[in-house]
Amino acid sequence: MGLNLAKISKDAIMTIRIGSSEQKCSLFLLADLLKGGLVLSSVIETVRDLVMPILNTNHFQLVDLEYVKEGQSWFLRVYIDKPGGINIEECALVSDLLGEQLDQADPDPIPQAYVLEVSSPGAERPLKNEADYQAAMDQYIHVSLYAAIAKKKFYEGFLRQLSAEELTLDYKDKGRPKQITIPRKNIAKARLAIEF
Prior knowledge:
This protein is of the alpha+beta class. The protein folds into 2 domains: about 5-120, GMP Synthetase, Chain A, domain 3, CATH 3.30.300.70; about 130-190, SH3 type barrels. It has 4 helices and 10 strands, in the order ββααββαβαβββββ. The strands form 3 sheets. The protein has a 5-stranded antiparallel sheet with strand order 9-8-7-6-10, with no helix packed on it. The protein has a 3-stranded mixed sheet with strand order 3-4-5. Strand 4 (about 75-80), helix 3 and strand 5 (about 115-120) form a beta-alpha-beta unit. Helix 2 (about 40-55) packs across helix 3. The longest helix is centred in the N-terminal third of the chain and has 18 residues, at about 40-55.
């Protein structure tokens, strides 16, 4: 089956998962990549290389990076945190310093116009790596699945056990306490959640 690169919509988005890392990518950009254009992962890696010294100097943590197209606009989102939480002035500082680094980078790592957003991950912080999962032990989380388990594609509950292969949640089903073990390879996304 061939791919007709000329017929790809500029608004089509695709999610690419490599290991435990997940990135959203414009199919148009992917088509451009197939024709020898910009590599989305290189944008993320270049931004990571630029932002890490800024974060390390200020004792902040990088939670996540996103480079996504929404509507007609591109967004570069940098989520940062520190023990005790991050404030708006600290986000503005990182935004200013990273903006300067991006403006001075040669060649320009991001050739299209974009909006730079630096913020805290918020109450529903994504769980991206092993340290995030360890920090979430005994906390309430939301887990989205690639394939349904017991006819459900997502679960919310307290993270009780964690291994390299699976995690176990205590959750409620129609008010009754239950427990489920989920293979980690079946987890599309996981994040902290607010219990209602």
